Amino acid sequence: MRSIEQIENIKGKTVLLRVDFNVPIKNGEVEDDFRIRASLPTINFLLEKGAKILLITHLGKGLSASGGMVADLEPVIKRFWEISKLEKDKIEFFDNIRKFPEEEKNDLEFAKKLSKMGDVYVNDAFSVSHREHASVVTLPKLLPSYAGFQLEKEVKNLSRAFHKPEHPFLFILGGAKFSTKIPLIQKYLELADEVFIGGALANDFLKAKGYEVGKSLVDDTNYDIKKVLENKKLILPVDVVVKSGDKFINKKVNEVGKDEIILDIGNETVKNLALLVEKSKFILWNGPLGKYEAGGAKSTKEVLKSVLNSNTQTIIGGGDLVSVFSSLDPRTYKLEPNVFVSTGGGATLDFLANGTLPGIKALG
Ligand code: 3PG
Q1: Residue 301, H or E segment
Q2: Domain spanning 162-351 has what CATH number?
Q3: pLDDT the model gives residue 93
């Protein structure tokens, strides 16, 4: 990847800057502007060099997935001007790129049309770089192309997980979608010293061990996880918080009833995990430990606090975990140089599993 610092003679030229301002919107307002802020250093750098910028982002799902309604960029544009405080004459926004079905079809003619709108392409959208879309993988082949600072930062930091990480190395994996995460689990059972499984993923493991998981969320794919279960590095919850009627009860994993729903990992498990955090030198954490949107955010918050207070080298990733992190008032914690918060969801998982992404390869 060539860095934007290597761009020559950019003064007066137009940069097509692919960003990912796909941020949560509620009642017409941006709820979390983390991804917008993340690209400001690249934008400021390009402006200082005298470039003009055409910002290209998607927001929400495309036409086919959203039933024909593609989100309006207005709230994003409004927030962008509020936080960037830049002069408006050098920056323009392209329409929500997913308004055009050709984007997701990775259409060459569409990419060619886009390429005529600028002189240089910059990718600062790590979190969409796992998508083989026109503005991510084809456009960079049609113009001189560079990586923005945020993309570089993601690659540099996430690569620490598979390039000589410090030990003891603790990998914490939560969230759902067991079948998509199994390659990641297998990879980090080799690279890490301990792999803790929480969230809905843990339900799959507990079920495979023969425990009752009641009405908890499980993945239906019949994947044989016996081998993984035998691995001594694997750590599962010893207790959980269940929703039983209207009540939330802490129970041992062998006490879950047929009508109960597991919402979170339990108190004893949180304590054990905090001890593991304390003795670790490197932590990679993706996905929340409980069903945070249904009252199961407590353990994730507690363990996050232990991690943030520990001074351990840490990488946090995944949209849901980052939302819980944002709810903690992250500005009260000193993040750099030890803690890196990834902007990616699926992209982070793919990068951690494969060591690269289609949008990164396209810059090479
Ligand atoms: C994300 O939110 O992870 C990125 O913006 C990619 O969005 P997508 O999953 O709709 O491609």
Answers
A1: helix 298-309
A2: 3.40.50.1260
A3: 98
